[in-house]
């Protein structure tokens, strides 16, 4: 009995000492190398989408999320619905209208964390939509909001295509820091 009482604490001490945490990676090594995080997989919407709403997964590399959080910078997601106008409308367009027939816009400011974004088609002008030749298209850009730094600091995968195709196969985009190289 005495041997067991003496050996048990020794075995327990050996097991506990073997459970030391791994040494931490130096902070400069973590910051120096841009990670290669995978773009998150699209998810099914929890609520019904509007007729022209498009959902996508937005991801940030570990380095981008860390740097933007350190800076306190937010991110802007900007969507533009557009298309080819019918000939009568195209002829009436002026230089002031610009080179693209815009039928609606969407913009929101978010924190730089991985998340699902829904671009709302609620702002589409119904009269302009009726004047489209073909299906509406959507272009989405993601960039830093420039609240803490005067320049855009991230590079994100572009989303651009027919609304029906983007809805059928929800895209995913990944943002990385421009200074990661």
Explain this structure to me?
By secondary structure, this protein is α+β, with helices and mostly antiparallel strands. It has one domain. The protein has 6 helices and 8 strands, in the order ααβαβαββαβββαβ. The strands form 2 sheets. The protein has a 4-stranded mixed β-sheet. A 4-stranded antiparallel β-sheet has the order 3-2-5-7. The longest helix is centred in the first third of the chain and has 16 residues. The termini are far apart. The N terminus is likely disordered.
Give the neighbour order of strands across the main sheet.
4-1-8-6
| Approximate strand percentage | 25-35%
Q: What is the string of SSEs from the N terminus onward?
A: HHEHEHEEHEEEHE
Radius of gyration: 25 Å
Helix-strand category: alpha+beta
Unreliable segments of 5+ consecutive residues: 1-43
- C-alpha end-to-end distance: 64 Å
Number of separate structural domains: 1
Q: Given the structure, what is the number of helices?
A: 6
What does the largest sheet look like? 4 strands, mixed
- What general form does the structure show? elongated
Q: What is the percent of helical residues?
A: 25-40%
Q: How many strands in all?
A: 8
Overall mean confidence score, pLDDT:
80
